[in-house]
Amino acid sequence: MSFTPVLRSEALKVLSLRSLCGTLLAVFAVTTAFSALAGVSDTSDPDFDPLFMALSGVMPGQIAAIAFGAMVVSSEYHGNAIRLSLAAVPRRGRWFAAKLVVVAVPTLVTGLLTATAALFAARAGLGPAADGLTAGQQLRGVVGLGIYFTLMALLAAGLTALFRSGVATLSTLIPFILIISFVIGDVAGGATDFLPDRAGQVVVYQTHDGHLGPWTGLAVTALWAAAALLAGAWRLRRRDA
Description:
The chain has 241 residues and is mostly helical. The protein contains ten helices and no strands. It has helices at residues 3-16, 18-38, 50-54, 58-74, 81-88, 92-126, 135-163, 166-188, 196-200, 214-238. α2 (18-38) runs antiparallel to α4 and α7 packs across α8. The protein is globular, with a radius of gyration of 18 Å.
């Protein structure tokens, strides 16, 4: 079977599951809502960063993006549906590639639309405080946030293939982001700049310190995602469905 019908089949699976479409809607809703709320916050803080404030909904939005990537893959392990999928597409690499495309493309499109809406919503509240943002910085924030959401969704997809469980993936990634990276990372610094979420989020700051810039930070997140996907592909090839 060629790649196109496999891709079409996987896309239909996503469209047929309301929970998956609802998760993408959650990416848009929570990111935009939190960014709009941040837009009416105090701007007198000396560390105030207007670009990050406008796109601060990245924090809850990434959780929804991770959930989407995990759920797309974990749906195959419910009721051993993966046996039917691999019986129809014996070439596991082709099937896995199609699965990743239906994770990446909707997440990227949703992420770009979300970042644009969040930026406009937050700027309306920030008013003159956001006048210092250049068009290039805003474009970088919008595009970067879309790519960041996509990479985090792919990271979750790879881990789900490795663990063969969406619950295990969410139980690993979400505490990692909320506790290890968010809390401990603020105190420890240094090497924690290279954690997947902290590295990728540099792109939504107007100014940045530390070891990484906006695009090198996304490159680090991409390396984490690639490692997870390679591990997931290895597990898929090694273990019988």
